[in-house]
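User
New here, help please:
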Amino acid sequence: MYDVARHALFLLPPETAHHVALKSLQVCHRLGLSAALAPSVTHCPVELMGLRFANPVGLAAGLDKNGDYIDALGALGFGFIEIGTVTPRPQAGNPRPRLFRLPRCHAIINRMGFNNLGVDHLVERARRRRYSGVLGINIGKNLT
């Protein structure tokens, strides 16, 4: 299934593929299919600086810039999720193209420029979440 999904996503521009993948994850979550996407996670709690993490594997900022997919990502079993980068005011980020694939290196170059809907949108989404794990928020400054 991974090979088919990867092939289909690689037919799309990188930024479009990113959005399609997240929207697909959200639909699967809403249909109750998250368990089929993620194997069961080994219970391995970690405590650090007064915070208790369900496990030591987390998701770094950048995937969910606006906090729109917190619950869908949380259902995959992450011990923590970091959302953002968000800025005080909404901004469009850098002009496109700004995300580039390096397939032979299994890598991407990200020159997005903190495109996001602003901190007010993110706070609204974070307040509505059901995910009970540790939630970090990456905050940056506006370009102008």
Observations:
- The helical segments are 2-10, 14-30, 34-37, 70-74, 119-128.
- Residues 57 and 136 are 14 Å apart (CA to CA).
- The longest strand covers residues 80-86.
- The longest helix spans residues 14-30.
